[in-house]
Amino acid sequence: MYTPNPLRFGTFELDVHSRELRSGSTSVRLQGQPFEILCLLLEHRGAVVTREQLRRRLWPEGTFVDFEHSLNAAIKRLRCALGEDAGQPQFVETVPRRGYRLIAAPMDPGVVPRPTRVAVSPRLRLAVLPFSNLSGDSSQEYFSDGVTEELITQLGRLCRGDMGIIARRSTMAYKGCVQRAREIGGALQADYLLEGSTRREGARARITARLIETATEADLWSETYDSTVSDWLSVQADVASDVAQSVVKELAPAPDVGLLLSS
Protein backbone atom coordinates (compact mmCIF):
# COMPACT_ATOMS: atom_id res chain seq x y z
CA MET A 1 0.00 0.00 0.00
CA TYR A 2 1.32 3.43 -0.97
CA THR A 3 2.07 5.69 1.97
CA PRO A 4 2.53 9.40 1.22
CA ASN A 5 5.51 11.17 2.69
CA PRO A 6 5.34 13.43 4.56
CA LEU A 7 2.13 12.58 6.43
CA ARG A 8 0.18 15.75 7.30
CA PHE A 9 -2.21 16.50 10.16
CA GLY A 10 -3.17 19.80 11.74
CA THR A 11 -0.17 22.10 11.39
CA PHE A 12 2.26 19.18 11.47
CA GLU A 13 4.11 17.07 8.94
CA LEU A 14 5.66 13.70 9.79
CA ASP A 15 8.57 12.61 7.60
CA VAL A 16 8.40 8.81 7.90
CA HIS A 17 11.92 8.37 6.54
CA SER A 18 13.79 10.73 8.86
CA ARG A 19 11.21 10.36 11.67
CA GLU A 20 11.07 14.13 11.96
CA LEU A 21 7.94 15.87 13.15
CA ARG A 22 7.78 19.34 11.62
CA SER A 23 5.66 22.43 12.15
CA GLY A 24 6.72 25.48 10.23
CA SER A 25 10.45 26.03 10.71
CA THR A 26 10.78 23.84 13.80
CA SER A 27 11.19 20.08 13.98
CA VAL A 28 11.98 17.27 16.39
CA ARG A 29 13.11 13.72 15.69
CA LEU A 30 10.76 11.28 17.38
CA GLN A 31 12.09 8.35 19.37
CA GLY A 32 11.05 4.84 18.36
CA GLN A 33 7.87 4.22 20.34
CA PRO A 34 6.29 7.70 19.99
CA PHE A 35 7.02 7.51 16.25
CA GLU A 36 5.33 4.11 15.89
CA ILE A 37 2.31 5.29 17.88
CA LEU A 38 1.88 8.37 15.71
CA CYS A 39 2.20 6.29 12.53
CA LEU A 40 -0.47 3.89 13.76
CA LEU A 41 -2.79 6.76 14.70
CA LEU A 42 -2.28 8.29 11.25
CA GLU A 43 -2.98 4.94 9.58
CA HIS A 44 -6.34 4.87 11.42
CA ARG A 45 -7.01 8.61 11.31
CA GLY A 46 -10.23 9.42 13.18
CA ALA A 47 -10.73 5.85 14.41
CA VAL A 48 -9.89 4.41 17.81
CA VAL A 49 -6.57 2.58 17.99
CA THR A 50 -6.92 0.11 20.83
CA ARG A 51 -4.32 -0.50 23.48
CA GLU A 52 -4.06 -4.07 22.19
CA GLN A 53 -3.23 -2.80 18.69
CA LEU A 54 -0.54 -0.60 20.19
CA ARG A 55 0.83 -3.49 22.22
CA ARG A 56 1.17 -5.64 19.10
CA ARG A 57 2.85 -2.79 17.21
CA LEU A 58 5.31 -1.80 19.92
CA TRP A 59 6.04 -5.08 21.68
CA PRO A 60 6.01 -8.27 19.57
CA GLU A 61 5.05 -11.60 21.07
CA GLY A 62 7.62 -12.82 23.57
CA THR A 63 8.55 -9.29 24.72
CA PHE A 64 8.07 -8.84 28.46
CA VAL A 65 7.47 -5.27 29.68
CA ASP A 66 5.27 -3.46 32.15
CA PHE A 67 2.81 -2.64 29.37
CA GLU A 68 0.64 -0.07 31.14
CA HIS A 69 3.54 2.03 32.43
CA SER A 70 5.52 1.73 29.18
CA LEU A 71 2.60 2.69 26.92
CA ASN A 72 1.61 5.62 29.14
CA ALA A 73 5.21 6.88 29.09
CA ALA A 74 5.39 6.60 25.28
CA ILE A 75 2.08 8.47 24.86
CA LYS A 76 3.36 11.16 27.22
CA ARG A 77 6.52 11.60 25.12
CA LEU A 78 4.43 11.88 21.95
CA ARG A 79 2.20 14.52 23.53
CA CYS A 80 5.28 16.43 24.68
CA ALA A 81 6.59 16.46 21.10
CA LEU A 82 3.21 17.75 19.88
CA GLY A 83 3.18 20.36 22.65
CA GLU A 84 -0.26 19.39 23.90
CA ASP A 85 -1.84 18.87 27.31
CA ALA A 86 -3.51 15.52 27.99
CA GLY A 87 -6.32 17.41 29.73
CA GLN A 88 -7.07 19.48 26.61
CA PRO A 89 -5.86 17.37 23.67
CA GLN A 90 -5.70 18.86 20.20
CA PHE A 91 -4.26 15.81 18.47
CA VAL A 92 -4.26 12.61 20.56
CA GLU A 93 -7.54 11.90 22.30
CA THR A 94 -7.73 9.30 25.07
CA VAL A 95 -10.71 6.98 24.73
CA PRO A 96 -11.22 5.59 28.27
CA ARG A 97 -10.70 1.84 28.65
CA ARG A 98 -10.19 1.47 24.89
CA GLY A 99 -7.23 3.34 23.45
CA TYR A 100 -6.44 6.54 21.56
CA ARG A 101 -7.65 8.45 18.52
CA LEU A 102 -6.07 11.09 16.28
CA ILE A 103 -8.52 13.99 16.24
CA ALA A 104 -6.55 16.53 14.17
CA ALA A 105 -7.91 17.26 10.72
CA PRO A 106 -5.71 16.73 7.64
CA MET A 107 -3.63 19.76 6.72
CA ASP A 108 -5.07 21.90 3.95
CA PRO A 109 -2.33 22.01 1.25
CA GLY A 110 -3.18 25.67 0.63
CA VAL A 111 -2.60 26.68 4.24
CA VAL A 112 0.89 27.65 5.34
CA PRO A 113 1.44 26.17 8.82
CA ARG A 114 2.09 28.64 11.58
CA PRO A 115 5.38 27.95 13.37
CA THR A 116 4.80 26.04 16.58
CA ARG A 117 7.35 25.41 19.32
CA VAL A 118 8.29 21.74 19.17
CA ALA A 119 10.87 21.07 21.84
CA VAL A 120 11.23 19.35 25.16
CA SER A 121 8.11 20.05 27.19
CA PRO A 122 8.52 21.69 30.60
CA ARG A 123 6.47 18.76 31.92
CA LEU A 124 9.44 16.43 31.42
CA ARG A 125 11.53 16.16 34.57
CA LEU A 126 15.07 14.88 35.00
CA ALA A 127 16.73 13.95 38.29
CA VAL A 128 20.51 13.83 38.61
CA LEU A 129 21.15 11.28 41.33
CA PRO A 130 24.28 11.60 43.51
CA PHE A 131 27.17 9.91 41.71
CA SER A 132 28.64 6.95 43.60
CA ASN A 133 32.21 7.03 44.88
CA LEU A 134 33.81 3.70 43.90
CA SER A 135 37.32 4.66 44.97
CA GLY A 136 37.14 2.83 48.29
CA ASP A 137 38.26 6.05 49.95
CA SER A 138 35.62 8.11 51.73
CA SER A 139 37.82 11.20 51.39
CA GLN A 140 37.02 11.15 47.66
CA GLU A 141 33.30 11.79 48.27
CA TYR A 142 33.86 15.45 47.51
CA PHE A 143 34.91 14.54 43.97
CA SER A 144 31.74 12.55 43.17
CA ASP A 145 29.58 15.21 44.85
CA GLY A 146 31.32 17.85 42.75
CA VAL A 147 30.51 15.95 39.54
CA THR A 148 26.85 15.71 40.59
CA GLU A 149 26.58 19.41 41.36
CA GLU A 150 28.35 20.40 38.13
CA LEU A 151 25.94 18.24 36.12
CA ILE A 152 22.88 19.85 37.70
CA THR A 153 24.32 23.28 36.93
CA GLN A 154 25.21 22.45 33.32
CA LEU A 155 21.84 20.84 32.60
CA GLY A 156 19.98 23.76 34.13
CA ARG A 157 21.90 26.15 31.88
CA LEU A 158 21.37 24.12 28.71
CA CYS A 159 17.68 23.39 29.20
CA ARG A 160 16.78 26.98 30.08
CA GLY A 161 13.27 26.13 31.25
CA ASP A 162 12.51 23.55 28.53
CA MET A 163 12.94 20.67 30.95
CA GLY A 164 12.63 20.53 34.70
CA ILE A 165 15.89 19.64 36.48
CA ILE A 166 15.07 18.53 40.01
CA ALA A 167 16.90 20.44 42.72
CA ARG A 168 20.04 18.99 44.32
CA ARG A 169 18.48 19.26 47.77
CA SER A 170 15.78 16.77 46.71
CA THR A 171 18.05 14.29 44.95
CA MET A 172 20.78 14.14 47.61
CA ALA A 173 18.37 12.13 49.77
CA TYR A 174 18.99 9.24 47.36
CA LYS A 175 22.74 9.07 47.88
CA GLY A 176 23.66 5.42 48.23
CA CYS A 177 20.03 4.44 47.65
CA VAL A 178 19.30 0.97 46.22
CA GLN A 179 15.68 1.64 45.22
CA ARG A 180 14.54 0.80 41.71
CA ALA A 181 14.52 3.53 39.08
CA ARG A 182 10.73 3.43 38.83
CA GLU A 183 10.35 3.92 42.59
CA ILE A 184 12.73 6.88 42.65
CA GLY A 185 11.06 8.35 39.58
CA GLY A 186 7.66 8.06 41.25
CA ALA A 187 8.86 9.70 44.45
CA LEU A 188 10.53 12.59 42.61
CA GLN A 189 7.96 12.72 39.79
CA ALA A 190 10.87 12.33 37.38
CA ASP A 191 10.58 10.97 33.85
CA TYR A 192 14.32 10.31 33.61
CA LEU A 193 17.23 9.67 35.96
CA LEU A 194 20.88 10.46 35.35
CA GLU A 195 23.14 8.35 37.54
CA GLY A 196 26.78 7.30 37.53
CA SER A 197 29.96 6.73 39.46
CA THR A 198 33.48 8.09 39.92
CA ARG A 199 36.81 6.39 40.62
CA ARG A 200 40.08 8.10 41.44
CA GLU A 201 43.54 6.63 41.78
CA GLY A 202 46.41 9.06 41.93
CA ALA A 203 46.23 11.31 38.87
CA ARG A 204 43.78 9.01 37.10
CA ALA A 205 40.00 9.28 37.19
CA ARG A 206 37.15 7.39 35.58
CA ILE A 207 33.61 8.79 35.45
CA THR A 208 30.63 6.83 34.13
CA ALA A 209 27.15 8.20 33.44
CA ARG A 210 23.83 6.58 32.48
CA LEU A 211 20.47 8.03 31.43
CA ILE A 212 17.49 5.91 32.52
CA GLU A 213 13.81 6.16 31.64
CA THR A 214 11.95 5.65 34.90
CA ALA A 215 8.77 4.14 33.41
CA THR A 216 10.59 1.30 31.64
CA GLU A 217 13.80 1.27 33.73
CA ALA A 218 15.66 1.09 30.42
CA ASP A 219 19.11 2.59 29.80
CA LEU A 220 18.77 5.18 27.01
CA TRP A 221 22.39 6.33 26.95
CA SER A 222 25.67 5.65 28.76
CA GLU A 223 29.30 6.74 28.51
CA THR A 224 32.63 6.34 30.33
CA TYR A 225 35.24 9.12 30.63
CA ASP A 226 38.89 8.57 31.56
CA SER A 227 41.20 11.45 32.53
CA THR A 228 44.76 11.82 33.76
CA VAL A 229 45.29 15.37 35.00
CA SER A 230 45.91 17.33 38.15
CA ASP A 231 43.18 19.97 37.71
CA TRP A 232 40.15 18.07 39.01
CA LEU A 233 37.83 21.05 38.81
CA SER A 234 38.45 21.18 35.07
CA VAL A 235 37.79 17.44 34.79
CA GLN A 236 34.46 17.83 36.58
CA ALA A 237 33.42 20.78 34.40
CA ASP A 238 34.51 19.19 31.10
CA VAL A 239 32.89 15.82 31.76
CA ALA A 240 29.71 17.42 33.08
CA SER A 241 29.47 19.61 29.98
CA ASP A 242 29.84 16.61 27.65
CA VAL A 243 27.33 14.51 29.61
CA ALA A 244 24.80 17.35 29.77
CA GLN A 245 24.96 17.97 26.02
CA SER A 246 24.61 14.25 25.29
CA VAL A 247 21.57 13.97 27.57
CA VAL A 248 19.84 17.00 26.00
CA LYS A 249 20.49 15.62 22.50
CA GLU A 250 19.06 12.26 23.54
CA LEU A 251 15.87 13.74 24.94
CA ALA A 252 15.34 16.55 22.43
CA PRO A 253 17.36 16.07 19.21
CA ALA A 254 15.82 19.09 17.49
CA PRO A 255 17.71 21.65 15.34
CA ASP A 256 17.00 24.48 17.78
CA VAL A 257 18.59 22.40 20.54
CA GLY A 258 21.68 22.01 18.37
CA LEU A 259 21.91 25.78 18.09
CA LEU A 260 21.45 26.04 21.84
CA LEU A 261 24.33 23.67 22.51
CA SER A 262 26.69 25.56 20.21
CA SER A 263 25.89 28.93 21.78
Protein model, in words:
Helices cover 36% and strands 25% of the residues. The chain has 263 residues and is of the alpha+beta class. A hairpin with a 4-residue loop joins strand 12 and strand 13 (218-228). Helix 1 (32-43) packs across helix 3 and helix 4 (141-159) crosses helix 7 (232-251). The longest helix is centred in the last third of the chain and has 20 residues, at 232-251. Residues 108-122 and 253-263 have low confidence and may be disordered.
How much beta, percentage-wise? 15-25%
* Total strand segments: 13
Instruction: Encode the helix/strand succession as letters.
Output: EEEEHEHHEEEEHEHHEEEHH
Low-confidence stretches: 108-122, 253-263
Secondary-structure map with pairings?
Blueprint lengths: L6 E3 L2 E4 L4 E4 L2 E4 L2 H12 L4 E3 H8 L8 H16 L9 E4 L3 E4 L22 E4 L3 E2 L7 H19 L4 E2 L2 H4 L9 H8 L3 E10 L2 E10 L4 E11 L3 H20 L3 H8 L1
Parallel strand pairs: 8-10, 8-11, 9-11
Antiparallel strand pairs: 1-2, 2-3, 3-4, 5-7, 6-7, 11-12, 12-13
